[in-house]
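From the shared-data thread, chain only:
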Amino acid sequence: MTQRWHDFWRGDIGDWIITRGLRIVMLVIAAVLAARFVTWVAQRITRQLDVGFAESDALVRSEATKHRQAVASVISWVSIAIICVVVIVQITEIMNLSVGSLVAPAAVLGAALGFGAQRVVQDLVAGFFIIIEKQYGFGDLVELTVGLSAEARGTVEDVTLRVTKLRSSDGEVFTIPNGQIIKSVNLSQDWARAVVDIPVSTNVDLNRVNEVLHQACEHALDNEVLGELLLDAPMVMGVESIEIDTVTLRLVARTLPGKQFEAGRQLRVLVLRALARAGIVTAADATVGLVEDPAVPAAKAAEVKTDEGTHEKTPGPVQQR
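Structure, as tokens:
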């Protein structure tokens, strides 16, 4: 057994394992370690950005922080791809595979995969321009138009050169190839705008309503919650639409990025309280007042005036003869 074991390592197979096999194994191990190191560095940068944001007084991430986190994700992805390509080339050289002999098979394989790979190349190019142009970054609230009419809306959780991942308000995760994005709308870049429509009855005094709304806007920044969300005092834009029984007035306010929905909810509460204190009836209150009380039976007694001037009550609706 000792002689056979000695002859095995002295033979062609043993010599290949010692001279080439070990080099291939070492290359693979080095590639795995390098990929894990790149991933660790990217995760460490991401955690530092998250900790820096959590320890700051800012309610939203800055544009620079969002872009850095997206760039860190892209660089880690590209670095791992480069490591894989370098290792494959090195293994090819170790195995003494002639590049010239692979030209013909590579041409056939390239022609076969060319039609499928063009979509991947399109995704990579589109992702490159998304990162360079800073269209959106990690944590942005965006609305993407995919294809001709499909839309996806949510918070950006990951951006790579090939795909963008969104988390919707329902918790769903959308994975969208960058090459299929036709239009991107960033709802949380630099600042946002909260729009609040206030429908009131046509019977109220609009001058009084405008006065109450202006007073509510002047004191909006004094509110403990709104003061942190608004960038400046809200503005009353005036009458937005007129219907048969309602008039809609619009109020707008500049807010922190991505905080327009929360600010809008707080502004609605503030406006409703101000109108209630002023005794102004909104369109909803007027509609409720016109609805019949459900406690009253539908077939209530009807009072009918007779020819003699007396009144008698009938148990149901009056029947005409």
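Residues 73 and 264 are 33 Å apart (CA to CA).
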